[in-house]
Design a protein that fits this description.
The chain is α+β, with helices and mostly antiparallel strands. The chain has one domain: Phenylalanyl-tRNA Synthetase, Chain B, domain 1, CATH 3.30.56.110. The protein contains three helices and three strands, in the order βαβαβα.
Length: 121
């Protein structure tokens, strides 16, 4: 694939179940049509899901017509970089998987902020 993550290695898979990513291939990578820049691999929390809902992005409700089953706390999901930054600024940013977060996220968020929210399994 040739895409780097925020810590300089090859981009790792974020999640295959639920299948995430702008391209729905499990990777948090972006492309020319991705206006949201879905490049941050996050482990969502109830707090974040409610925040996202309050911002007009319902990630909870299933949308079968889009093959989307709805998210619950603990799911891994590729987030828009600016949505993660908004959540960070509001004090409810979810943890991130650095190895599965594309380097392009650094155009929008600080590496130290991502590292401070690094998920450890």
């Amino acid at each position: 694939m040739g895409i780097l993550n925020v810590v300089g290695g090859n981009l790792k898979l974020c999640c295959a179940s639920p299948l995430t990513g702008y391209f729905r291939d499990g990777y948090c990578r972006t492309g020319s049509g991705d206006r949201g820049v879905h490049c941050i691999c996050a482990v969502v929390t109830d707090e974040f899901l409610q925040f996202s809902l309050s911002q007009g992005n319902d990630l909870i409700t299933p949308r079968p017509e889009f093959q989307f089953h709805g998210l619950k706390a603990g799911d891994k999901w590729c987030l828009c970089a600016l949505r993660w930054k908004e959540a960070f600024d509001a004090g409810c940013a979810p943890q991130v998987i650095l190895e599965a977060t594309a380097e392009s996220a650094l155009e929008f968020v600080d590496l130290n902020d991502l590292k401070a929210h690094a998920f450890s399994s």
